[in-house]
Amino acid sequence: MNPDRNTDEALERLLDHTLRDLPPRRAPQSLEGRVTAALAQRAAGSPGRWSFVLWTGPARAGFVAICSAVMALTLLGGGTAVTALQRLPLAAAPPLAWARHALTVTGAAAELAAVLVRTVPAAWAYGGLAASAALYALLFGLAGAAFRTLYLNAPPTGRKAS
User: Fold this and answer.
1) pTM of the model as a whole
2) pLDDT at 162
3) Which of 51, 31, 48 is nearest to 39 (CA)?
4) Is 3 exposed, middle or buried (0-12, 13-18, 19+ CB in 10 A)?
5) Which residues contact 86 (CB under 8 A, 6 or more apart)?
6) Per-residue model confidence as pLDDT tens digits over 140-149
7) Do 47 and 63 touch, CB atoms closer than 8 A?
8) End-to-end Cα separation, the chain, in angstroms
């Protein structure tokens, strides 16, 4: 055994024991006041800045329902809405003439997407969805493995690895 190592370990044990026996220190009054004020300010912040996890259950359910409805309207009724908007008379509003061209382009893109969706076999679509799900699972698995390798198996900071 190395005598220097024994004295280092003994010193470390003595220091650890001495520091553990000390009473916990109280934070300064000024720090307590600043932290309390910062927490109150954060709690009083606008609800739009809160994390989605902190929303109430009905608010989350409503948000998901509205987003699902907008997505369904976009996917299912987008072409019909564009066709209806194209038929509106814009002759009375010349500054909005560019809108007719934009709607024409959007309608053509929607029709192209509809033709492509009809021509792709259902088996290919389901296979693509399954491949996407498998790739996402692989991504999360690799991210978890990388996290475990990099952070959970690493020696704690400030101590020597034995």
Assistant:
1) 0.32
2) 46
3) 31
4) exposed
5) 100, 103, 104, 107
6) 999 999 988 8
7) no
8) 14
Q: How far apart are alpha carbons 31 and 120 in whole angstroms? A: 64
For residue 139, give the amino acid letter: L
| Count of beta carbons in the 10 Å neighbourhood of residue 103 | 19
- Cα-based torsion angle of the residue sequence 139, 140, 146, 152 in order, rounded to the nearest 10 degrees: 180
pLDDT for 141 equals 94
> Contact 118/110 with Cβ under 8 angstroms?
no
* Residues 82/107, Cβ–Cβ less than 8 Å: yes
Identity at 141, one-letter amino acid code: G
The residue extents of the domains of the chain are 53-119, 122-152
Nearest to 105 by CA among 124, 85, 125: 85
